[in-house]
């Protein structure tokens, strides 16, 4: 335990074990990003998976909408300390998008309109753990929250859930993304409080 | 690993009616770049802890300016309770993106909304320390003059620093507009609440700035 802060009592503890260490609960939806919000029209939007063997699988907006849709509910945890419980999304599971993708790669580099990147092991995108989402809380996803579509990987800190997602490159070697190259943890498990490099 | 360090409050001053600047002594502080932040951790007697991030206000030493938020679990403690001689824990520096490096001599445009001035002030102070002739332009949007931070320094700006003030709660009420923003060329740093940063970044794109040269830092929640 750290040093006691004289006179500090803190908020009531009522999170029922849902808050990872160092997090606090919010009820709004803060926005964090490194630059201006890109605006991408749905009819110019596309999503692509590039394999390590050089194959590309592409989806237009209409093709994404025609795929089976899921409505995950998840607690999300931002590395800047806020957590938001029971967020509701709609989108397509990565399992669906990877159905016809042949790969032996272990790593994924997610990239976005506007140039953002983030990396994670491919297995963290599969088996019901990640979605390409285009609706939040029953509404079309707003640009400032990543619309038209963002990745949602709720079991990792939320910077891994790339806004304005454009595609995934599959790689045999791990390649650090934007924040991962700027002092943040390579994996980012909130329950192990992996905020910064070396945590 | 960025380890937790003990930080002892050695001085404090009112920065505005709602904000306080805190000067800490942190043994073996490794130094930092202007724009970086630290995580602060408070611990209650029952072991409960709370963490928040705060921008460093100076390029040297460990100095934070904290705006007391209504219902702010950590900020209200730092603004109202913490007394000179008290110790807290902090770790850092954190963040390798929203930083100004003195070796880069490109002109700089800083756009601050309210307490978003803090990391930008660290950049202004780093620029002062660095010398040279890099021009800085600060656009500082805030409710009213009495709320401004760092009044002594900003009321008599250095010759290389241009300041545009935008007062949003002073008649005539107004928001930041395109006319407040110089055109493309400088590296741009925008910091403030989300709504402000969104609006300012969109205006910067409207007046021709390259999105790749606009760095933003937002706070909220």
TrEMBL record, chain A:
Family matches, as SUPFAM superfamilies: Oxidoreductase molybdopterin-binding domain
Pfam families given in the database record: Oxidored_molyb (PF00174)
Ranges for region Disordered: 1-23
InterPro entries: OxRdtase_Mopterin-bd_dom, OxRdtase_Mopterin-bd_sf
Positions of the Oxidoreductase molybdopterin-binding domain: 35-179
Full protein name: DMSO/TMAO reductase YedYZ molybdopterin-dependent catalytic subunit
Species classification: Bacteria, Bacillati, Actinomycetota, Actinomycetes, Streptosporangiales
UniProtKB/TrEMBL annotation, chain B:
Keyword Transferase: no
Statement: the UniProt record of this protein carries the keyword Iron-sulfur: yes
One Gene Ontology term of the molecular function aspect: oxidoreductase activity
Entry-linked Pfam families: FAD_binding_6, NAD_binding_1
Cofactors demanded by this protein: FAD
InterPro entries on file: Cbr1-like_FAD-bd_dom, FAD-bd_FR_type, FNR_nucleotide-bd, MRET, OxRdtase_FAD/NAD-bd, Riboflavin_synthase-like_b-brl
Residue ranges of every copy of the FAD-binding FR-type domain listed in the record: 2-100
PROSITE patterns: FAD_FR (PS51384)
UniProt keyword list: 2Fe-2S, Iron, Iron-sulfur, Metal-binding
Protein name, entry field: Ferredoxin-NADP reductase
Phylogenetic lineage: Bacteria, Bacillati, Actinomycetota, Actinomycetes, Streptosporangiales
